[in-house]
């Protein structure tokens, strides 16, 4: 099966089919539709190598992330599937890079011409991958907020607004003493900014409202997760509400509370942050802010592909925060 077969089936020239595949020249919607119908009918798959030669593109997106011992792996995986699904829908494959030395790995795959652009997850405040990303001249999108945002497309949840939303929700119900379980200490040390963006905003909002808020580092692996939750609950017996910003901890919390005989919300109101999919996976019944990994993944791929195809056409680089939304599941009163 060749491009000539597609051209004959669509009633156009070989060059028109080539333009439709490469996007080098504009063609009418009617012609593009005839070509796509011919491709579908014939089961034609463009040769990746030929496309790369013709367009100077590989049709591959690099996805850079790491799975750390101090993070809850299922939470990170929530981003990977929508990223890969959206890339495939837009005609791109994904090369997932998990090297410990992310900066060197980025240099390697960009110098070798393996990818047309990159998406970075697990972004740190002073992320060592940013300098080689800028030097590579390849478009990149970050899911996560670094200190230096110059010349970068950045997407993330507005964690500060999410913290204020949850504190306000509990204060509105009359709670005056709240426990906050944060990500593990190691996440803060690695400079992952969502950790302190949420914690600091929650502490500040509680102070503004005259509330008592006890912030404690959570854990990501058992048995430390359960031991830490029990210790925090033992320490603050007068607290009437809990905010859990820790995926490993919130997944374990229903069992911990059941074993302690604590009823939600009668004895303790509980709120958290997680996606609907994460909540279904772990049967979590808590009122929570939606973390939107699916939307963030899709937006990241679309923004990157726009940059790959049209350079500065999508407009200035910018930081975009998704506004938080709260789903009330009846775990607060």
User: What's the CATH class label of the largest domain?
Assistant: Alpha Beta
CATH architectural label of the largest domain: 3-Layer(aba) Sandwich
- Using only CA atoms, what is the Rg? 24 Å
N-to-C SSE series? HHHHEHEHEHEEHEHHEHEHEHEHEE
The assigned structural class equals: alpha/beta
State the separation between the terminal residues, measured CA to CA: 65 Å
Bulk shape: elongated
β-sheet strand percentage: 15-25%
Architecture overview:
With 333 residues, this protein is an alpha/beta fold. It has three domains: 3-55, Orthogonal Bundle (434 Repressor (Amino-terminal Domain)), CATH 1.10.260; 60-157 and 293-322, Rossmann fold (3-Layer(aba) Sandwich), CATH 3.40.50.2300; 159-291, Response regulator (Rossmann fold, 3-Layer(aba) Sandwich). 48% of the residues lie in helices and 16% in strands. It is built from 14 helices and twelve strands. Strand 9 (269-273), helix 13 (276-281) and strand 10 (287-289) form a beta-alpha-beta unit. The termini are far apart. The model has no long low-confidence stretch (mean pLDDT 91).
Annotation keywords:
single chain; 333 residues; alpha/beta; 434 Repressor (Amino-terminal Domain); Rossmann fold; six-stranded parallel sheet; six-stranded mixed sheet; 14 helices; 12 strands; elongated; Peripla_BP_I; transcription; HTH_LacI; LacI family DNA-binding transcriptional regulator
